[in-house]
Structure formats: structure tokens, C-alpha cells
Amino acid sequence: MSAQERPAELTAERPVPRPAARPAARPGRRRDEAKDDAILAATLELLAERGYDGMTMDAVADRAGAGKATVYRRWPSKVRLAADALVCNRSARLSIDDVPDTGSLRGDLAAMRRLATRVNNANDDALTGVWSIVQDDPEVAAIFREQFVKSKVGLMRAVLERAQARGEVPAGRDLEMIAMVGPALLSYHKLANGGSLEEGFVERMIDEVIVPLATCAPVPEPAGSR
Amino acid sequence: MSAQERPAELTAERPVPRPAARPAARPGRRRDEAKDDAILAATLELLAERGYDGMTMDAVADRAGAGKATVYRRWPSKVRLAADALVCNRSARLSIDDVPDTGSLRGDLAAMRRLATRVNNANDDALTGVWSIVQDDPEVAAIFREQFVKSKVGLMRAVLERAQARGEVPAGRDLEMIAMVGPALLSYHKLANGGSLEEGFVERMIDEVIVPLATCAPVPEPAGSR
Amino acid sequence: MSAQERPAELTAERPVPRPAARPAARPGRRRDEAKDDAILAATLELLAERGYDGMTMDAVADRAGAGKATVYRRWPSKVRLAADALVCNRSARLSIDDVPDTGSLRGDLAAMRRLATRVNNANDDALTGVWSIVQDDPEVAAIFREQFVKSKVGLMRAVLERAQARGEVPAGRDLEMIAMVGPALLSYHKLANGGSLEEGFVERMIDEVIVPLATCAPVPEPAGSR
Amino acid sequence: MSAQERPAELTAERPVPRPAARPAARPGRRRDEAKDDAILAATLELLAERGYDGMTMDAVADRAGAGKATVYRRWPSKVRLAADALVCNRSARLSIDDVPDTGSLRGDLAAMRRLATRVNNANDDALTGVWSIVQDDPEVAAIFREQFVKSKVGLMRAVLERAQARGEVPAGRDLEMIAMVGPALLSYHKLANGGSLEEGFVERMIDEVIVPLATCAPVPEPAGSR
DNA sequence: CTGTAAACGAGACGGTACGTCCTGTCTTTGA
DNA sequence: TCAAAGACAGGACGTACCGTCTCGTTTACAG
């Protein structure tokens, strides 16, 4: 029932968010699509102001100028609404085409870092606030993983592949693994730091970890390996 | 109010977990110390079965065969109880002395991995479920960081330093950063995988990321480097 | 607003139920008069099946094959609809001319009872269910009193007057009061009985109360009266 | 479950309202019996001020200084609460012993009328407001019939029996039926009058209906009866 | 025959009450 | 004095219904 009932954001890949809608006309009043946005906006605001627990469904409805029924007609539960609000809000997603080819891996990473900062910093933090709650719902959890993990890793991997094509990265490296290192370190650092990002951390990470790891020659396996 | 009221786990450094308690006799019934364990066990079970939201205080008390008041006499809130349950349960902590010196970084890491598996696998997973909630409480958050981040990174760093002393790791590497890579990748992988650890992932991580990163020669900085 | 909007039943005396309507033509689609009946029928059914609370406006519209707007275009509220449904349905009203002159009060009453049974039994019962709700609306309440109280008492009074003309009932009796006794007992009995009418109750009432009361000689007032 | 859970008023005959209660002691906080009264009082007030629909459960809890859970722990639904409030409030119930023996039926009735006015006038009116709603619940309906119908009829019957013993009322009269006439007329009159009682109505009823009916000689059955 | 106005079925809307559940506190009885 | 049991205030959740409004379609008069 739900895949069609709910707004499409959480259930489809973004590129085609609403699949051309109902081809045949249905009777009855149309849903006010503007309400979706109003509700999501209200949700996001309240999430930021008061946290997940303070984000009351009544408050959401109220601030969105909607009735609770309207909210529940579109999202089946508070968790799903919060999840959708966070996912949808990741306004732009970076793709490899957004990252300029600077001619070096190090340059590309620096460029990427600048783009990413502009795009989705605040959201990542808000996300942490609902992460554990969102995990209860397996479907939502999958979407979240897609949105917040795989997309980052994918972008990083594309950058690495470009560097490999350029000859910077030797063949035979486990790019999948290496692509995870950046995002992983970033989020682990935030974990260890109470959510804040230390000045200069990203640069240090790029210079001390990612670039060396990607560009150094493969170490020969020890003879009697394991 | 709390430092004395609550079991010591969350408020003191582990070495002296329960401060020998009151030696002199007080009037009245003694606290049943066994109840602490029953409550923590119940908490952990429910956390695993139903997640943080499903872990009701009533259910905890019920399963522990205790009254709610008993629970609240020992822990000041649900969050703290959940936090304590997770922290306390990390029965043993590894130190560098527990990791045998196999003569190679790769061997040490493999040994460490075997030890760690025995010790604290299940718990790390349960942790993910309460992470964000636990963050609300700054004191708890600090303990958690200590327990789940710094201790891992510290151990890893010690292993790296041993390898450096052995001559495997070149001087001048940012060991702090490199030590984070292992734990970060592990937890990020679990995040991306819904909590489960893919077969062979750790080995791949050791061979493709940590060992190369630690042992390869530093790459020369590009000429016009920032 | 309403007198013209709504079907005429509740606002006009029955004899001219729908005042020949607008002779001049207006543009636009005509109201489907058949829908009135469908809606009233649905209302009555649901009232009987589920009571006033269970009689949802959505359910009424649904069962009548109508939209809610259609219902609300014709009746301004749920109460009024329920009221109308009950009132309109009292298909025929008995008048003194319908009651054959059997030559005795007792015979006339028996005849009347047979007629009344045919006419409006089920409805009286449904009525009880909305009585108190209907009271909120003063206009509706007035109609209801007219329909369900005065009409019965009026008929009974006519029968009593015929008996008085016949010489059965002594002059000087308070016919107004006596005429109320029958209807009052009937409805009170239903109240006390959960809506059902005990077998033989009407006959007993006629023989033990109405006839004796109407025909006996007036009792002499006690000497030092009040 | 419910008979014991709820306060006893609606489920037991008043004389032994709470059946000696729990003989053995149970652990746990006792129910605050004062809350019962506070809640019932709040209910009654709100019922009077705003009617049944306006009597919100939240408002009741609020005014009673209680939580909604406390209300719902004691009454299973709004209807039951309203019902109980009305029934319990009939502070005193008249019995035949309260009606002085004036030596004549007419005098007894006048005395009874004075007593009844003092005791339960307002309540009868409030009752009308919930009657139809209360009817949905068969158990409550039965209690209401008991309280508001049978008790009145019973008292009236006792007065008639006393008059019969005195010789005022001939043997062989259908006292059950005659006892209903008074209450029936009264409530029917209120029905027809929008709830208000016309000045002098009761006296007229006593003199023109009840006394004549009870004291007149039985009319001979017509020969060829029906 | 075409335009326009109204009524139609469907169903979304704002609002609001209901009854359930959970947290953290308080009270009672027993050990 | 502490324990178990459980009642308490408060407040959020998700459901249901009322009366209104908006769609896109159908009907019927007007020109």
C-alpha cells in the first residue's frame, strides 16, 4: 500500500522522484503537493530546534498549517516523516561531474571537500539525531544507508577511478575499500569529537591517509602469509 | 546526587569499579547487588530484541523481577541505564599487553582481530542503536567516546608504535590518524551493512588498507602544494 | 440560509411539503430529487444498525451512492439529517377520521391500536436513540415534539371527545391530561424495557388505565382539600 | 475484568456498594479513593456546563487534577464515566419510609412530590442529555433503567399499596400499571415541553389522573368483550 | 448547438476528541 | 530501610469523524 501512498522521496532513487504521477485521472480532490513541502519544512525546523523527541506530530501539523490527518495521510508514522524530511532535504547530491578535474587526486579531493561543505554539512549532523530511531524500520534504514553512506563512497570511488585513469593510482588497488576510508574517518572523527569537525582535520586526512594510501606502490605480501 | 547512588560503571574509570562500598553497617535492608546485574541483563536483552524505543522501563523492571522504583533508585533515567548496560557489558578491555608480538604488523593485527572478536562483537552492534540518543547527555556521551572510540584507537596506536619500533613503519607517519582508520572502517562498514560484518572484510581491510598505509614510503608532496 | 436550501420536511407543516418549487428556470443542473430519498433511507438504516454515533456521514453518503457534499448541500448537519430521516419516514399520520367509530371507547382504542401498529412502530424505537441529541437543536426539537408527541395526544383526545359526545365520558374531565396518559405510558414502558413492547401491554393499559380513568365518575374531593 | 476494576456504583445495588473490598493486603500504591469523587464531580460540572459532547476527557482529567490514565484506569470509556457520574449523584433515593403517612393517597402524593423536588430535579434533566448515548451500552442502559425508571415506579407502587391497605384503593386494581402513570406522565410532559415542568402540572396530574384512577370503582367489562 | 452554471462522486483538508502507552515520581505493604 | 507492586500526572501517539473545499465530470437551461 505504502509505496504509492507516501511521497516518493524515500522509496525511489532521486533522479526520477515522482514517476510521472497518475497517468489516468482519479476522481476526488487532488493532494495539495505544496503541503508536502510545508510539512517537510516544519519537520526539519522542529527537528533542528527541539530534537526528535521534541518534534511533536501536532507541532509539525500546526506549523505546517495542516491537520494531523493530512500528515498521516502522507506518512505512516513519525519516524518515516523524520526520515523523509532528512533525506529529501539533501537538496543537491554531488556527482563526479560536479567535481572539477584538477589534474591530481589531491587537487580533486580538495575541490570535493569545498563542494561538500557547501552542500550537506548541517544535514549530516541532524541525521545523527535520528539515526538510532530510524534503524528500527528496516525499509527506512536501507534508504538511509543508501543516502548517507553509499552515495558518499560512490563519489569518492569515482574520484579514485579518475585518478587511476590518470595513472596516479596503481592498478590492482582495492578501490572499493579505499573509497570508504574518507567517509569512514570523517564520521568516526565526529563520533569521537561529539559531532564537531576539528579545524584542519580533513586536510590532514587527505594528505596523511587517502593520498598515500591510494598512490603508494602495493606492498609485497609477506612470504608465508598467514 | 548520582555519583554515589548509581552503580559506579559510568562515573568512574574502570580500574576501581565499585569502591569497596560502605564497610560500616547501616541500618535497613541492604541493596541487593545481584539486582544490578539482573537489570542490566534485562536491559541488554530488550535493547537487542526491540531496540531502544521498545526497551520500556516497565519491561526492564518486569524482566529483571524488580520494581520500577528499584531501577530508578540506581539509574537516574532510561538513557543512563541503556548507556550503562552497554558500557558495563564490555567485560574485558584489551591492552597492548594482550596482543602477542608476532614480529610483523600484519601478524599483530590478525592476532588482535581474533582477540577482539572473542571479546566485544555483539555489543558494538547494540551500541549503534542508542548512539544518537546517548549523545543528548553530555556526560554519557563522553564516557561512550572513551569506551568505544578512544580505547580502540589507543590499542591500535600501540600496535602501530610497536611496528614502528620494529622498523616496519617509517618515521614521520601520522600514527594518530592511521590508528583511526581501522576502527573507523569497521564501524562505517557496519553502518552501511545494517550492523552485520561481511565475511572476510577485516582481512581485506588489513591487507588492502592498514598495512599498506602504515608501511609504504611517504609520497612526495606535489610541487606547488597548497 | 437553510429554509430554502434544505428539503422541506423539517421546516414546514407536512400538508404542503414542497412548495411547488421555483417555477422560473435557473441555469445549471437540477438537483436529483431521488437522492433525497436514498440519503434518508441510508440514514435510517444506519441509525437502526449502528445507532446515532455509528451513523457516520461518510457511511451515509457511501451507502446512498452520494458524495458527502451532496448530503451537506441538502442538510446542514448530522443532527438535522438524522432528525429529518426519522420525521419524514412517518409515512402516514393517523387522524380521527381514520379511526372507525365502533360505538365504544374501548372498541375505538382497540381499532386505533391496530392502525397505529401498522403505521409507525419501528420509527418510534429509532427515535428514542436520537432524542437527547435532537434536543440540542431547538428548531429540530420543536418539530420532534410536534411529530412525536402532540400528534399522538391530539388523536387520543379526539377519540376521547367522541366518547364524551357518545356519553361514555362524564363532562368535566380533564381530557387534555387523560389524552396524554396512553402515549406517556407507552413510551415510558419502552424506556423501562429497552425499547421493546411487552406482549399484551397495550391491552392491559387500555383496560386497566385508560377506560377506567375516562369513564369512572369523578371522585369527590376530600373535605379539607389542600 | 471490569466489574471489579471500576468503582462499584454502576455495577452493584447501592446498599452494599463496595463489597468489603480486598480482605488480604496487596502490595503497591492504593488507589486514591478521593480521586473517584474529584473525577465524578468534574464530570458532572462539565456535563452541566457544556453538555456531553463538550465534556472532554482531557477536560475532566484536568479539572479533577488527574491524568487521563487515572480516569481510564477507573472507567473504561467516556460513556461509562458520564453514566456513573449521573447515577452516583442521585445522592439520596426516596423509599416508602421517607414518605409520611398523611392518611390519604392524595396527601401522600403531595408529600412525595415535595420530597422528590428537593432531591432529584436537576439530575433528571442532565440525564436526558446522555440518555440516547447511554443506550448504546446495554449494561449501562440496564442500570439507567433501574435507576431512573424502576425506582420511581417502585416508590409510587408502595404509596399505592399503603392506600390500598388503608382501604382507599379497591382490591383487584392493576397497581403495577397505575404506578407507572405518574412517572410516565411527568417525563412525557417534559418531553413535550422541552424539558421544563409547567407550573401546577403535578397537582393537576394528581387530582385529575392518579387519584381518580386509583380510587374509582372498577368499571364492569362490556359483555361481549372483544 | 454551444456556452455557462450548477450539481454530482470522490476524496483531501483543518480541527479536535478519543483511548493507549510510556516516563519518571510517589505511596503502600511486606521483609 | 529497602524491595515489589502499582497508582499517579503529564503528555505524545495514531485513529476517527465532522463539516468544508476542491477536483474533474455530467446535466440542463440559455442564447
How would you characterize this protein structure?
The structure is a homotetramer of 226-residue chains. Chain A has 226 residues and is mostly helical. Chain A folds into two domains: 2-13 and 33-88, Tetracycline Repressor, domain 2; 93-215, Tetracycline Repressor, domain 2 (Orthogonal Bundle). Chain A is built from nine helices and no strands. Chain A has helices at 2-5, 33-54, 57-63, 68-74, 78-89, 105-134, 138-166, 175-193, 201-215. In chain A, α2 (33-54) crosses α3 (57-63), α6 packs across α9 (201-215) and α8 packs antiparallel against α9 (201-215). The longest helix of chain A is centred in the middle third of the chain and has 30 residues, at 105-134. Chains C and D meet through α2, α6, α7, α8 and α9 of C and α6, α7, α8 and α9 of D. Chain A binds a DNA duplex (31 and 31 nucleotides) through residues 25-32, 35, 53, 56-58, 61, 65-70, 72-73, 76-78.
